[in-house]
Inverse folding.
């Protein structure tokens, strides 16, 4: 990819001297250290697919009044976060293609401004995606363990405040990151937030699965009540676990990249890993492509509404 690329600030380490960087680059000059050559057309295609999918998810939730619930509002916000990834990727790829073919000629200062805007969108989507995945997990946890009090705990007003707080925090954190990206403390905060959310969600899922297993044992021993409640709870936990797993696989290499930038910017192995940055970007975009498919196939009502949206039967 050319100079204009999302998160170009994180493509290579900045906390190493030029001499050390040159030596490390020379030591990592073998073919397998260069990383795959990913065409811009692949970025463009995945970005378009992701944008269309997430637009359909948002449209389906807005269309069906039965989906006007806090949990689906949180899912809608997660889809918007994925759309930010798609939009930034599409904008970056289109500008690159236009400049490479000589259709668009811009000054270097404009390119830098575009980089900052794209970087801010990507960083905001990272924080918001992590946050809304955690919010969805907490919401589901409350649904299962505090079912009778759920509507009094998770009111529409509290859901709106939560969504507004997440978007505000995402915007502020992305601005701080772009401004102080050379400070390792900023990266450490981002990495720590990532692992904090993962640990929180894993704890919640383990507790939810433990409850589901307990209900299954009780029902199987009594053979008097149907397993509707337990099946519904287990289905929700599995759905969120799949979302978490996909998110971890798609974002894990990127955060490992950040860890290497902080810990070993001049190590030959680390510099080899830096060469695969474009592949990490592809994985990030794939996350925004896969998420809507998970919503559609695991929620019957949302899947039905998606078909209605596709068929334009408003």
């Amino acid at each position: 990819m050319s100079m204009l690329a999302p998160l170009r600030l994180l493509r290579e380490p900045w906390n190493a001297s030029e001499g050390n960087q040159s030596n490390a680059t020379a030591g990592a000059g073998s073919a397998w250290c260069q990383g795959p050559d990913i065409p811009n057309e692949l970025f463009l295609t995945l970005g378009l697919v992701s944008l269309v999918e997430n637009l359909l998810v948002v449209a389906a939730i807005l269309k069906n009044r039965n989906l006007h619930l806090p949990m689906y509002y949180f899912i809608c916000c997660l889809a918007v976060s994925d759309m930010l990834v798609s939009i930034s990727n599409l904008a970056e790829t289109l500008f690159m293609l236009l400049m490479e073919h000589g259709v668009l000629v811009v000054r270097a200062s404009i390119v830098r401004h575009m980089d900052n805007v794209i970087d801010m969108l990507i960083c905001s989507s990272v924080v918001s995606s992590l946050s809304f995945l955690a919010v969805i997990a907490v919401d589901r946890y409350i649904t299962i363990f505090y079912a009778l009090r759920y509507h009094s705990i998770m009111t529409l007003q509290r859901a709106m405040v939560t969504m507004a707080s997440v978007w505000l925090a995402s915007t502020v954190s992305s601005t701080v990151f772009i401004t102080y990206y050379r400070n390792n403390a900023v990266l450490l905060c981002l990495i720590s937030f990532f692992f904090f959310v993962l640990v929180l969600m894993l704890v919640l899922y383990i507790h939810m699965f433990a409850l589901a297993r307990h209900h299954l044992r009780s029902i199987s021993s009594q053979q008097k009540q149907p397993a509707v409640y337990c099946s519904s709870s287990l289905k929700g936990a599995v759905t969120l676990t799949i979302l978490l797993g996909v998110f971890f696989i798609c974002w894990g290499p990127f955060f490992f990249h950040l860890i290497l930038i902080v810990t070993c910017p001049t190590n030959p192995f680390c510099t080899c890993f830096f060469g695969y940055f474009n592949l990490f970007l592809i994985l990030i975009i794939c996350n925004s492509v896969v998420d809507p498919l998970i919503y559609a196939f695991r929620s019957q009502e949302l899947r039905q509404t998606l078909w209605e949206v596709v068929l334009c039967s408003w």
Remarks:
- The radius of gyration is 22 Å.
- The chain has a mean pLDDT of 78.
